[in-house]
Amino acid sequence: MIAPVRSALESSVSSSRLASLLRPAPDSAVAENLRRGRSPWVDAIHLLWTLWVFLTPLFGGGYTWRWAALTLLTYPVFLVLYAGVLLAPRCHAPRYALSMVVLGLVPLAWYPSAVSYFIFGCVTLRVSRRGGYGRYLLQLVGLNALFVVVGLLAHYPWQALIWIPSMAMIISLVVNFETASHEQDAALQLSQDEVRRLAATAERERIGRDLHDLLGHTLSLITLKLELSRKLADRDPVGSRREVDEAETIARQALAEVRSAVTGIRASDLAAELASARLLLEYQYVHLHYAPPPPMPVDTERALSLVLREAVTNIARHAQARQAWITFEQDGRGLLMQIRDDGRGGVHVDGNGLTGMCERVAALRGTLAMQSAKGEGTCVTVRVTLPAATTPVVAPVTPDALPDGATS
Length: 408
Fold this sequence. Notes:
Strand content: 5-15%
Radius of gyration: 34 Å
Shape: elongated
Distance between the termini: 83 Å
Strand order of the largest sheet: 1-2-3-5-4
Number of strands: 5
Helix content: 55-70%
Number of helices: 12
Structural class: alpha+beta
């Protein structure tokens, strides 16, 4: 009875230890993949390169019992070290990478397949991000010089002492530069998400302050008027009705002010869309030039905002542009909005969401024209006629209200 219980407890303890060993550190490569929504096994694809461990005997020496024994001894150790690189904290990961280098150098005289371990160690050495590329380059040069020394002592041919260090240097630099580029893109995306979050928070706070300033005093005054009316209802009916009339007048004024405030909040759509367009295009390495839009009715601004969003999305996805321009021109009641890029062009009117753009412009009784010669970029021109001056218009957006550097 005791023996099965003890066996179960030992099995449970061993499984918990294994789970703790496989749990990634918060700043490990696996944890970062999980934060980005990627599979924790995505880096395991690089293990396909270890196929060279099993193919190296084909190029000399052949498959022998010594090769099989050294493979059975070293390959599991390599897998443990590679898992350590991915699961350990960034500050500890280089220890596992250097251990791979040692695993590749020590048996080199008797086991040419160990070259793969050496290259893996060189590639994964910079996982800690400490010291910058200068320190990493010095480490690469030193390790490959050590490889040449060990290769000379092991009587490797001079050709191998040239191409193996060269391959290790090239693969290490390419992989790490690509990794650094992906990290910069991720950091840029995070900063843009933070900008959007802060902008949304600031807008909510502004709306809250405006509504508090607008309604707080007004509702308090209405409450006082109604309380006074209730007290005067029996002894002064005329005064009571006067207080009720005044409360009604104040309520109507408050309603008009709320509608005006809501209109102002809605009217920020186009300015916000321009700021979002700048963030989206800069993330795609497209520099956007634009100026503040002129005053216009709310319905017109809302429709133009949707057209602008669709056009900018097309630039980001399909144009392969380096620069884009958004301009507004007003001549009397005529308003022109132009979105232009220097991309590849060749866009068709019946694709890329342009049909929906045309429908929105048509609802304003305007026109949309597009020029998109292949290799000469795309230019979308929207012309609308603004209603008469009696239509409420949006307060003009000043450059101060836009992000720094928004104007060209």
